[in-house]
Amino acid sequence: MKFLLFASSFYLFIHSLCFSTNKNIILFITDDQSPDAGCYGNKKIKMPNLDALAADGTLFTNAFATTASCSASRSVVLTGLHNHLNGQYGHQHNYHKFSSFHNTQSLPVLLSRHGYRTFRIGKYHVAPEYVYKFDYKIQGNQRNAVQMARECAKLINNKSNKPFFLYFATSDPHRGGGIDRNSKYRPDLFGNKPNKQSHNGVSEVHYGLDDVEVPPFLPDTPTCRAELAQYYQSCTRIDQGLGELIKILKDAGKYNDTLLIFTSDHGIAMPGGKTTVYDPGLRVPFVVRNPYSAKKGVVNNAMISHVDITPSILDFAGAYNKEEKLPKDGLINFDEAEKRANNENKGPKIKSFHGRSWIPILEKNNPEGWDNIGASHTFHEIQMYYPMRVIRDRNYKLIWNIAYPLPFPFASDLWIAPSWQAQFKQGLDAKYGQKTVKNYIQREEFEFFDIKNDPNETSNLSSNPKYGDLLNEYKKKLKAMQKSTNDPWIVKWSYE
User: Of 250, 302, 248, 249, which is closest to residue 58 (Cα–Cα)?
Assistant: First the structure.
């Protein structure tokens, strides 16, 4: 009897050490945001809180989404698997109805099994819910990150002996909210209130046409500048929410106990960005503050992607097997899915992640072995069938447009964007950034870019005989990526 009591007490002691409150985690993820901030070199947009977080942590300069579609990307973030293997090929909501395989083992479920309290607030956008199950849902206005942060105060101040994982997902700076009818350029409001009104608790920052930086992939027109001004305002509102969340953490004495990650699901909602696998669609802001890192203000040049988020968070939580790139023993459980789903919905039993943990490299500037990423995109909305696969390193980037005979399909919100329509109405030869309207609508099967010397992806080298051998080398790399991630589209190489 004494032995049993001792054993029980010892177990509880060890359990309390493993699941102590000093391993909290917040994943702050925005919606359609490129790396636009002072810490990324943009001197016009006002995001002081993100800049301060970067100065207090690690800023990744080469962070990428693996797909530029909202639901698909979030499924990658929360599983560590490319969407072609977790089953979330495109949008979850409305008539699109994509959802992950029922056997998928998601981050919140794994953390819950590891002893975490899991919470979400804001945009969810994945399915089915029991695959991506959080213990609690916090209500909040997805367009007001300040209000969202305040709704999380109760969670943060809770005295539970269990750590928490908070998935904090804004709908900003996604398009929406109507158009600005007070502007002759009629830009989308990007979630901002019309007539320069303010969201509750937010000190709105308004931008004029001259207060923005136009990136090379966009046309420098008044219409485009007007839309960027609205986008900047939405980003600044996000930043105020980040600042409010950090203040609440500090007031609760938990800032130095919390891993804080700031990123976006993919790049800006402009043609050439969102829904494309060009760099403006895949590049995302990525700032991490590990409270246990000694070095601050680290600028890290490692090439990371969204498949690395789940393994990294599990690593921080002590729930990651680094050697085999999978959750620690006992966390994977396929039995629940087997009971819930019929055979058609089960999907493959995937245990190992496509990504790996960046926790060990947070204090390094140029870590070795982090020099390439892969991307996989199939759908955005249901009408947007256009599978693309990508392999990219520091020198070259290969895009395989698998359905290249088809015109590139536009997302509904991007098609009606005044910045796009203004150029489209001028004809196929009209310039859109450094490309033409035609370049966006009709694409070649392979796009091969010297990304080091042509970072704006303007010159496709795939038909240049000079690069034939190099192109074949990158095709082999792409095939290897597809094979290692069980990509069903690898079959097309065999019949073309």
Answer: 302
Contacts of 169 (CB under 8 A, 6+ apart): 29, 30, 31, 74, 120, 121, 122, 123, 124, 125, 142
- Longest Cα separation, the chain: 86
The count of structural domains within the chain is 1
Position 14 in a domain: no
Structure tokens at 292: 């246990």
Backbone angles phi, psi at 48, to 5 degrees: -65, -30
Domain with residue 150: its CATH number is 3.40.720.10
Does the bond joining 194 to the residue before it have cis omega, within 30 degrees of 0? Answer: no
Residue 470 located in a structural domain: no
Name the pTM for this structure: 0.94
Is residue 121 a part of any domain in this protein? yes
Structural domain includes residue 495: no
C-alpha dist (Å) from residue 312 to 63, 308, 469:
14, 6, 36
How far apart (Å, rounded) are the C-alpha atoms in residues 435 and 421?
Answer: 15
Positions of the chain with pLDDT lower than 50, given as ranges: 1-20
306-359 pLDDT, tens digit each: 999 999 999 999 999 999 999 998 899 888 777 776 666 777 888 899 999 999
Q: How confident is the model at residue 344, as a pLDDT?
A: 62
Q: What are the catalytic residues? A: 70
